[in-house]
Amino acid sequence: MQTTIALLCLLAAPVALSYTAEELVAKNIAAKGGIEKLHAIQSVRLSGKLVVNGGMLQLDYVTLVKRPQLVRYDATLQGLTQVQAFDGSQAWQINPFMGRKDPEKLSADDAKGMGEDAADIVGALVDYKEKGYQLEYLGTEDVDGTEAHKLRVTRKNGDSIYVYLDPDYFLEIRTLSRRIEHGVPNETVTDYGDYEKVDGVFLPLSQESGQKGSTDRQKAQYESAEINGVTDDAVFHFPALPGNTPVHQ
């Protein structure tokens, strides 16, 4: 009788699918649109709003990312534009909100995160071997009620990023980046949503991020996305003259 009950319970229990790390990467790439379409992406331009201070402030926001390691963020409020950019070797910023209207160079630690984000233009899992990353599958973990697949990607410099994939669609729903910056660990959580198909590739148009354990988060809600529309590398480089022309919406 006990054997029969145990068998019935086993048959009634949901079957948990098991994957290898490589299988999850393959599913993630296929879900995004396939490796050929992902390799064809040379740049991405995202435009929308940046919501900060618990929703009290909304800024016009533009993100530009271009291979191999170019990135720029423009946040505009009341005619003032804050710029942060990385040209592959040097990071710099213009921060008029802090009373600084001239461009200034940033430290190597400040640049590291931007450079890594630019290198992973279509995600840390794509071409992870070619980028020299190490990959591990850590099973599943609850992410706001979703039993997500958890992968750990370790970069060549020792920094790591935990990637959480939706169990049904195999797209990123969260990442946790762990970096050493200015000599101390820095952990940033980013949640992804509102995926839309752009030129055959699914991109997350909602990205909400903040320090792990903090309630202070900022949300980028993009209204438009363009692939391979960024041609001028000059916008990523440290300006030769004081000030810099903002990237127009």
Helical content (DSSP H or I, runs of 4+): 10-25%
- The fourth-level CATH homologous superfamily is Lipoprotein localisation LolA/LolB/LppX
Assign an overall shape: globular
Low-pLDDT segments, ≥5 res: 1-16
Q: What is the total tally of β strands?
A: 13
Overall structural domain count? 1
Using the CA coordinates, give the radius of gyration: 20 Å
Characterization of this structure:
By secondary structure, the protein is an alpha+beta fold. The chain has a single domain, classed as Clam (outer membrane lipoprotein receptor (LolB), chain A), CATH 2.50.20.10. 16% of the residues lie in helices and 47% in strands. It is built from four helices and 13 strands. It has a 13-stranded antiparallel sheet, with helices on one face. A hairpin with a 6-residue loop joins strand 9 (160-165) and strand 10. The termini are far apart.
SSE layout and pairings?
Blueprint (H helix, E strand, L loop, with lengths): L1 H11 L8 H12 L2 H5 L3 E10 L4 E10 L3 E8 L2 E7 L4 E5 L4 E6 L2 H12 L14 E10 L2 E9 L5 E6 L6 E10 L2 E15 L2 E11 L5 E11 L22
Antiparallel strand pairs: 1-2, 1-13, 2-3, 3-4, 4-5, 5-6, 7-8, 8-9, 9-10, 10-11, 11-12, 12-13
